[in-house]
Amino acid sequence: MSGVLVTGGTGKTGKTLVQVLRNAGVQARVASRNPAAADPDAIRFDWNDPTTYGPALDGIDRVFLLPPVESVDPLPLVQPFLRQAQLAGVQRLVMLGSAIVLPNAPSAVEMAAQVQAQPGGVVLRASGFMQNFLRPHPLAERIRRLGEIRTAAGDGELGWVDARDIAASAAALLLDPETDARSDYLITGPHGMSYPQAAQIITAQTGRQVRVERITEKEQAAAYRASGMPTEFADALAAVERGIKEGREGQVSTAVLELTGRPPRAFAEFVSDHVYEWTQ
After folding, report:
1. Do residues 158 and 197 lie in contact, with contact meaning Cβ atoms separated by under 8 Å?
2. Which of 5, 21, 84, 137 is deepest in the core (most CB within 10 A)?
3. Of the candidates 141, 75, 87, 146, which has an alpha carbon nearest to the alpha carbon of residue 114?
4. pLDDT at 37 over 70
5. Superkingdom, according to UniProt (predicted)?
6. What residues does 31 pair with on adjacent strands?
7. In the predicted model, what is the mean pLDDT of residues 64-69?
8. Is the peptide bond before 119 cis (omega within 30 degrees of 0)?
C-alpha cells in the first residue's frame, strides 16, 4: 500500500486523521491551500485549481475527501477530482459528508452517489461537530465573550459528534482498504442534544453561566453573514436550524462503535477535555 491523501488535512477532522494514520505507520499526504513547509508530506491542493489534483494523487491509493466548505453546490469542483482519482487507481475513497442536507443544495445527493460509485467509495454522513463550540467558530466566540448561545433551533436536538470520533471512523476505513464496508455511515454522538442542554452542561462543568437566547431564522442568517460567511451558505445554514427545531435532525447511530470498537464521546466528556476554552 502506498499512502493516503487527506484533503482538508489541516482542518478539524483532517488534522486528527493525519495524526492517527501516521501513528499507525501509514504515509499521510496533507493537502491544503497553504501547505506547511516543515512537513515533507504536505502538498498544495486547491479545489479551484484542477492542476493541483494530479500531483496530490500521484502515488496514492487511498483518499480522504473533504468537499469544498461553505458551498451549497460543490459537485462541479469535486467531479473532475473523482475522475482523476479513479484513473490514478485509488482503492478506497472516504468522503466526509453531512447528515444534514442544506436547503437549495441540489447536488449533495448526487455527489454522494458518485463517491459511492468509485472503487471502495464510502460516505461518512456526520452530524453537527462538537468542535463548533470551540473557537474560532462564531458559536464559540459568542459563548466566550458573552456567555450566550443564540439559536433559532429552539429545543430541537442534534446528534452532535466529536471530530476525533469522525477521524477515528475514517481511519478505520483507510488503514485497510481491503476491509469490507458499507457505502454509507451515519456518524453521530451517543445521543441527541439541544442547545439549551449544551448550555447546561457547559455551565455545570465550567462554573460559568451560559444562557440561551432564542432568535429567528432570519436573525441567525444575518449573524452568520456578519461573521463572514457567504450569503447563500449563511442563509442555508440558518434554515437548517428550522429542521432541528422541527425534530428532523436528532437521529443517532452506532456507526462509530461499529467502525472503531468504542462508543463515541458524549458532549460532557468533550466539555471536560476543553474546559479552558470557556474559562480563560
Report:
1. no
2. 5
3. 75
4. yes
5. Bacteria
6. 7, 43
7. 95
8. no
| % residues pLDDT > 70 (the chain) | 99
Confidence band of 92 (pLDDT split at 50, 70, 90): very high
Neighbours of 173 (CB within 10 A): 21
Sheet with 184-187, side-by-side order of all strands:
42-44, 28-32, 4-7, 62-65, 92-98, 121-126, 184-187
Sequence-distant (≥ 6) Cβ neighbours of residue 115 within 8 angstroms: 65, 82, 93, 95, 97, 121, 122, 123
Determine the Cα–Cα distance for residues 49 and 204; give it in Å rounded to an integer.
47
* Separation CA 219–CA 271 (nearest Å): 27
Written in H, E and C, the secondary structure of the chain is CCCEEEECCCCHHHHHHHHHHHHCCCCEEEEECCCCCCCCCEEECCCCCHHHHHHHHCCCCEEEECCCCCCCCCHHHHHHHHHHHHHCCCCEEEEEEECCCCCCCCCHHHHHHHHHCCCCEEEEEECCEHHHHCCCCHHHHHHHHHCEEEECCCCCCECCECHHHHHHHHHHHHCCCCCCCCCEEEECCCCCECHHHHHHHHHHHHCCCCEEEECCHHHHHHHHHHCCCCHHHHHHHHHHHHHHHCCCCCCCCCHHHHHHCCCCCCHHHHHHHCCHHHHC
Global pTM reads 0.96
Dig out the grid coordinates for 50 from the structure.
Answer: 484542477
Q: Is 25 left (phi over 0), alpha (psi -120 to 50) or beta?
A: left
Is residue 1 pLDDT above 80, yes or no? no
Can you tell me which residue has the cell 477530482?
Answer: 81
- Joined together, the cell numbers standing for residue 220 give 441567525
- Please state, in angstroms and rounded to a whole number, the distance separating the CA atoms of residues 133 and 156: 17
- State the Cα–Cα distance between residues 82 and 98, nearest whole angstrom: 18
